[in-house]
Amino acid sequence: MAFTIAIDGPAAAGKGTIGRALAAHFGFAHLDTGLLYRATGRRTLDGIDPVEAARTLRADDLDADDLRTPEVSQAASRVAAIPEVRQALLDFQRAFARRAGGAVLDGRDIGTVICPEAEVKLFVTACDAERARRRHKEMRGGGHDVTLEEVEEDLRQRDARDSARAEAPLKPADDALRLDTSEMSIDEAVAAAVAAVERARG
Ligand code: CDP
Ligand code: CDP
């Protein structure tokens, strides 16, 4: 039976971390939808037209090892504002969301556009400083030589662009449960999310 958990929120709020943990806990499949936009944006940096890049995206493209750089983040956020790009990625996400056995998707528009009928919707946030600190630490740990200021600037620009766009902007669904993780450890955030899903499952 299909059961969908939709997780949305601004950049580096912990959506993916919580999504992966929920999927493992409940035995559901997990899709980080940001990867679709990152892989599309990555291809445009090679000169491919954004709509063409989204339409011809392949599984291999999602495995590229340079999808987390600030340059690709920015390219992802730019292509994500193009309605035809979003349209090209829609069917795959919807089918994933309603697959048998349960699914967790994280992104910006999962609860509002991709799966408005999701059984559980979480809107995960954390304050700007905490999100930048976490992403900076993560990137430094991964060997990326970026400054905290560069990460802050990337998050600030993307959140502004993602919130302001006309098509599927970043915003909580009316029935989303808000989870502010600013003062939570990963374990605490995951426990709160698990509890919310268990309440919805009854
Ligand atoms: O998917 P999203 O961009 O929203 O965030 P993430 O990649 O899951 O998390 C960004 C970073 O914050 C990761 O390195 C997490 O380990 C860390 N983190 C977190 O997700 N939640 C906390 N409560 C504390 C740290
Ligand atoms: O991990 P982080 O939160 O930094 O970003 P991401 O989830 O990998 O998403 C990268 C970019 O893709 C975002 O800044 C959005 O512009 C776009 N995106 C989107 O528009 N809709 C989604 N469902 C997921 C990502």
Automatic annotation (TrEMBL):
Q: Where is this region: Disordered?
A: 151-173
Question: Does the keyword Nucleotide-binding belong to this entry?
Answer: yes
Ranges of compositional bias, category Basic and acidic residues: 154-165
Q: Where does ATP bind?
A: G9, P10, A11, A12, A13, G14, K15, G16, T17
Catalytic activity reads:
CMP + ATP = CDP + ADP; dCMP + ATP = dCDP + ADP
User: EC?
Assistant: 2.7.4.25
CDD domains under this entry?
A: CMPK
Mind telling me what this protein is named? Cytidylate kinase
- Organism this protein belongs to: Roseovarius ramblicola
Query: Gene name?
Result: cmk
